[in-house]
Amino acid sequence: MPPTENVVATMQAHNLRTWLETEAVKHGTDEQIDAYNRGILPDAELATIARTVLFADISTTLVRWSGSLRHKLRYRVRHTASCSFNKSHNLALIAFEAADAAELELHERENLRNIEAAVRKMSTHPWITRGDGSVAITTTAHWAECTECKGEERAIQCRVVVTWAGRELVREFQL
Ligand SMILES: [Zn+2]
User: Fold this and answer.
1) 1-47 pLDDT, tens digit each
2) What's the gap in Å between 21 CA and the centre of ligand 1?
3) DSSP 8-state secondary structure symbol assigned to residue 26
4) Which element (helix H / strand E) includes 19?
5) Cα of 82 to ligand 1 centre, how many Å?
């Protein structure tokens, strides 16, 4: 690409980013708008405003994913009667594994469909269609397995990533 085209592309990208940011900050408080205009609004706060707007259609009844959900799986593993876990409660016997989510149960499929519908709507938002944004959904199965009796339990993490104004806005849910 000749240098002049590079400059134009850079300017266009800069203008788009500025437009996206000024549109987003309009959804903030008066104080945040003032802070943005003065150039002192932290990037994380701006990203939070944009995330709140873009993720508005994803049901608020969905449980947000967190690392502690994965940790708590160890307490839900069902052991056989003869498993020594039942006597010693040796938590070190639990092994964790993450894999692509292949099979989903009914309530998980319903939650996934709800998220997919919200993401389709999000994809039509002007910030995405006029910008160079994109939305992606990935699902991961987190397994906890007793290394002795092979009893297991799992939870599905659903990660939604939106690219917006050169940033990645992420929100994670449990299916
Ligand atoms: Zn066990």
Assistant:
1) 556 778 777 778 888 899 999 999 999 999 999 999 999 999 999 99
2) 52
3) T
4) helix 3-25
5) 8
